[in-house]
Design brief:
The complex is a heterodimer of chains A (76) and B (150). Chain A is mostly helical and 76 residues long. Chain A contains four helices and no strands. In chain A, helix 1 runs antiparallel to helix 2. Chain A is globular, with a radius of gyration of 13 Å. Helices cover 67% and strands 0% of the residues of chain B. The chains are: A mainly alpha (76), B mainly alpha (150). Chains A and B meet through helix 1, helix 2, helix 3 and helix 4 of A and helix 3, helix 5 and helix 6 of B.
Amino acid sequence: VPDNKEARLKLLELLYAYSTAPAAEKAEALAELDAAVDAARAGTMFSRQDIKDHLRRNYFPDYYRLRRMQERGSAQ
Amino acid sequence: MSTPIPSQQEITFGDEFAKDPDFYFATQLITRMQRELHQQRRHLLMVASRWLIAYEYLKQLEERLLLQETPLEKERRFFQATVTVMAGLGRLLIARLEETDSVKLDALGITHADLLACVAELADIDRAAHREITEELTAKIESEVFGARQ
């Protein structure tokens, strides 16, 4: 079964955007994340929280570090 | 020799972390918010301001202690406990704000929806850290959500 890495990366990107958004932009970032999660879980038995918890626990720390490294690299 | 009785702050936050430089600032803000949330309505804007400052501080701690480094187990536990307290205080703050129309968050440069989203973020961090996610659930999500659908 081919792994749908693009779908996971898209959600991680939106989770990162939500996590790093300033307080005044949080609502919009959360709405975008939740809409994408809902689209990904459509037709499955999983809740929105299931997907977000899964990503946060299993992928987010590594993704976060990677993005921060990229941002530092591009800033230099 | 008698055992010294801990102060209320030490009881609330458990151990030496109440004085740890990393957590001291957030601890002080939380202590004030706990007191002010039960006082008069006119304090609510100030509490919202303190909550947002503590939230930003926690987010910085999350990045520095948890995401960029490997934290000590006791640091991770205290961070998670602080997130739990902050999520609870955020929910209480929202409930108090929704009881009145007289307090406007515009003065802080955010909307009510933004504050809700900030509280939701801490609740997400809290839940994901404490929830038991079985290998079976993980495998099913990977297969059914991120694998090719048959």
